[in-house]
Amino acid sequence: MEKVTIGVLGFGTVGTGVVKTLRDHQAGLRAKTGMAFDLKKIADLDITTKRIVNVEPNLLTTDAYQILNDPEIQIVVELIGGYEPARTFILEALQRGKHVVTANKALLAVHGQELFEAAHQHQVDIGFEASVGGGIPIIRSLREGLVANNFTEIYGILNGTTNYILTEMTEKGGAFEDVLRRAQELGLAEADPTFDIEGIDATHKLVLLIYLAYGQHAEMKQVLTQGISNLQPIDIHFAKEFGYKVKLLAIARQADGMVEARVHPTMISADHLLAKVDGSFNAIYVVGDVVDSTMFYGHGAGMMPTASAVVSDIVDIARNLQKGVTNRLPLLPSTGESARFTLQAPDQFHSKYYLRFTAVDRHGVLSKISGILAQYKISLSSVIQKAGYPPDKVPIVMLTYDAPEHAMQQALSRIDQLDIVTDKTVLIRVL
Residue 172 belongs to what domain range? Predict the structure, then answer.
């Protein structure tokens, strides 16, 4: 029986799950592949803390170069996270002719082009199924299962922490800060949740999906990114009244050779499939010109779902090794159909909008606000003005028809300077 030899960099939550999976499912993996998976070395700065899986002491090291310099190790699994030293370790592994599996979406979003070029140059593979959607096989689906398609739309709930918070705010009420605190107590949010709640994590993942779907590398600054930290219960309530739910969506849409890319809170119809994705689950809704609409749903993070994706990449590379092939699915953009798109500027897309103004209770307020919107050719579809609020804190809620983002921002900049408006306008885009 052929053997593939593996080294793991990082023995934290996901690393522990990968080791556990390789140990517990060794027999099944052998039966399915005809190969033995030999875990030769695990490197981590902390090799004394007890994990849920027991490993022999001789497998553990604090020196990553015991893996990188070992000629027997064929696949290096990078689960350190962050930019450095992960980037350096991956580049050195590729330069030594080792294949790499990683779950590091932040690194790939920023340095992916460099790493993919190095893999191509040294004729080795990089697997990164676990970088987007945890255990959801979206990477392989875009690259293989849906390869016949041109993708017109991709909508993703790509961060479980924010989806849990929005679900709790919708179903049980409560301020954002209180729900975030509960999520942290339950271990569903990090002590520093910035990457999650400000949309950065979802943007990392969207950058990778755009690369695979459109053959176009997007820099983080080219993606309009807004988080959920400014959402208030009143906006969740109004969304319900209009028949919507609020989700943090990662959106990529293409038309006429342009691709728009954005991550922000979005109101979606309560009947839409994505509106029914609650709790810490993730989902990616993909529309192709051949397959039409598809949706991928599951756990987007966690020890075992992520380990499932990592091991799938290990097995995929092992099968390539068995057949003596590499770069079977090239990661560098081609010069053909997949490379014909360019990224749209972040303020050039069109959307419908939910707007909540906080104004004084005075005659003519509504006409002044709607008058400025009309100057920018922004038309209104619905208006609600609620009674029972303090005279200087009256909420006026509007839904607009489709309008350009840049026009909306210019209009709101003028409206927020009016003496009748007492707080910054709340804007939520509507799908």
Answer: 145-299
